[in-house]
Amino acid sequence: MLKFRLIFGSLMLAVLFGLLYLDGKLSEAMVFDGAVFTALVSLLAIPAQFEMRALAAKKGLEVMLFPAIAGSIILASAFFWPQFVKPEVQSDFLITYITFTPALIVCAVFFEQAMRRGYESTIANCSATILSIMYLGLMSSFIVGLRIKMGLAALLFAIITLKSSDIGAYTFGRIFGKRKFSPTISPGKSWEGLLGGAVFAAVIGFWLAGYVDFLPRWGGAVFGAVFAVIGQLGDLAESMLKRDAGVKDSANYIPGFGGILDIIDSPLIAAPFAYLYLSMFLN
Fold it and tell me: With the CA atoms of 33, 14, 276 and 192 taken in that order, what torsion angle do they form, in degrees rounded to the nearest 10?
């Protein structure tokens, strides 16, 4: 398991950094930022929604794929589109976009339910679909927001620090883990792993802050320690979905990791808080 995690984790990071490099180069040549990264995050919603649909099906629920995928992509890309309007109206455009779009999505979900399934299981199916859209679409929009509003350096800082907490938690948990902090939801997680992840991420955050001009070193250390815990809560949230569905992984696409949801669970929950935290230093 550890061998596969190291191999495929390194490969995924290499691909991600390559795409971010391409994203930066294209942004320099164009008048808008983040096209490649926005496309990457948006397209990940497709396999992720299939995974959510499979988890829901285990409980007799249905995630309606068309509104789920379309809604997730529309929400995930929210911070990208204001670049195409005049600067003086970008803030109003974004506010309108992120308030009107969820309303439109709710209507689309009810329409899909009515046209294809009638009234049977309306509450269950619509709730599962809307949860899936908010979880994958709305939460990931803040990952795109980090890239668009705060720049490539802020995005890389957040990603590297967050993933370092996963590495620290996994390593310390394997070596020292004895006391489980959530035995019913995620038996593999321990207080020792959580503490190790927080300490390791704080060190990485402190170190990385020396290479960026928007964050003091103490701010980087605080980010690492706090968001290591928030990232673990994101992991627990996905574990709750899997436990309820009675499966170990959301899928088996990637050896050592599982599915897309198993990879993005921590960043999804941490992204809105990371956006808020870093905005205090950048604005």
Answer: 180
Burial class (CB in 10 A: 0-12, 13-18, 19+), 260: buried
- Cβ pair 125, 164 in contact under 8 A: no
Amino acid 88: pLDDT: 86
Total domains, the chain: 2
Domain final position from 133, 150, 167: 150
pTM: 0.90
Distance CA 68, CA 77 (A): 14
Query: Residue 176's pLDDT band (boundaries 50, 70, 90)?
Result: confident
Find all residues with CB under 8 Å of 162, minimum gap 6, and list them: 201, 227, 228, 231, 266, 267, 270, 274
d(CA 204, CA 208): 6
Q: How far apart are the first and last CA of the chain?
A: 42
* Domain termination site, one of 118, 150, 182: 150
pLDDT, tens digit (0-9, with 9 covering 90-100), for 216-261:
999 999 999 998 889 888 888 888 888 888 887 676 766 666 778 8
